[in-house]
Specification:
Layout lengths: L4 E3 L11 E5 L10 E8 L6 E8 L2 E4 L2 E3 L11 E10 L6 E11 L13 H13 L9 E2 L13 E4 L5 H17 L9 H7 L4 H23 L1 E5 L2 E5 L2 H20 L20 E3 L18 E3 L1
Parallel strand pairs: 1-8, 2-9, 8-10
Antiparallel strand pairs: 2-6, 3-4, 3-7, 5-6, 7-8, 11-12, 13-14
Helix pairs in contact: 1-2, 1-4, 2-4, 4-5
């Protein structure tokens, strides 16, 4: 399900609803010349319009709009979509933005990974915040240059970059790395770590960020391309930027893990005395003629 979740009969407002933030190229908030939105039931995988079409959003402040409606009491459980359509200027092309959200019977159904624990969900939420993937619909820029106005029918979909199950996997791998690094630790789950050593939470989150960014870099390697025609070239290359960020965070992760003041430096090491299978009985200092030595635990020396 979508990370943006509402329950039946819930009224959407500025604080808890679906918002759209518009900015100009220079980053300043900017109102659209025209803007509407439509809501669709997507629980079957096919969009079904929930009338009326072309609803007018509330313009809370310059460049800020939000959808205001009530989730029906008998709404189907599952995914929904809201499509925003707007124009920067009256005579400019129409832009379209798609947001996804989910309707649940109650707020306890927000989870999307069966069997995940509350601790795991809390750590996944924290990881999204660190990766700036916690509010994909926060900002939208009028970015395309004027020369590309003819390509204004393209849709922009606001959604999370990483799925919950992916972030959970990155967290588990990071925990494995932490455990393997000497001295070895034996935290079998995120729940155990948070219960016994919550101070390592930041360490595992930092490690998970590395794997999340590396995965994104792999995706962009596939999508990169270079094109040139008529003296005009177009290059799309992002993998190195994500990889560079991953390497920077990886350096921080290793420092947090292995430096003199790092996490593993706080692990107490108890080394027992190794005792041989064989021992030497202590005899009297006056010589063997006095008698045999007493072979007792108190008088036992490891060979």
């Amino acid at each position: 399900m979508s990370g943006v979740t509402f329950r039946r009969s819930q009224e959407l407002s500025r604080s808890n609803g679906l918002s759209l933030f518009l900015k100009s190229k220079d980053g300043n908030p900017k109102n659209a010349a025209t803007i509407t939105y439509s809501v669709y039931d997507f629980t079957t995988g096919i969009e079904v319009l929930l009338p009326p079409e072309g609803r007018i959003p509330v313009n809370a402040s310059v460049g800020e709009y939000y959808a205001s409606f009530v989730i029906p009491v008998d709404a189907n459980i599952g995914k929904y979509r809201i499509r925003w359509q707007f124009r920067e200027y009256v005579n400019s092309g129409q832009a379209q933005v798609l947001q996804e959200f989910a309707v649940v019977a109650d707020t306890t159904q927000v989870v999307s990974i069966p069997g995940a624990t509350p601790v795991e969900w809390d750590v996944i939420r924290s990881l999204r915040v660190l990766l700036r993937d916690n509010n994909p619909a926060r900002n939208y820029h009028f970015v395309p240059p004027s020369g590309e106005e003819s390509v204004n029918q393209m849709n922009r979909v606001f959604g999370y970059i990483w799925e919950d199950i992916e972030l959970l996997e990155y967290l588990k791998v990071a925990l494995d790395i932490v455990n393997m690094y000497p001295p070895r630790t034996m935290y079998s789950s995120l729940d155990q770590l948070m219960t016994e050593n919550r101070g390592w939470r930041a360490l595992v989150l930092t490690g998970a960020m590395v794997y999340a960014l590396q995965a994104l870099s792999i995706n962009w390697i596939v999508d990169e391309f270079g094109y040139s025609i008529g003296g005009v070239s177009l290059d799309l290359e992002k993998s190195s930027k994500y990889q560079g960020m991953a390497e920077s965070i990886d350096g921080r992760f290793k420092e947090m893990l292995s430096s003199d003041t790092g996490a593993k430096a706080t692990v107490k090491i108890i080394r027992g005395l190794q005792q041989s299978r064989y021992g030497i009985g202590i005899r009297s200092s006056f010589g063997p003629s006095v008698g045999r030595g007493a072979l007792t635990p108190r008088r036992f020396i490891g060979a």
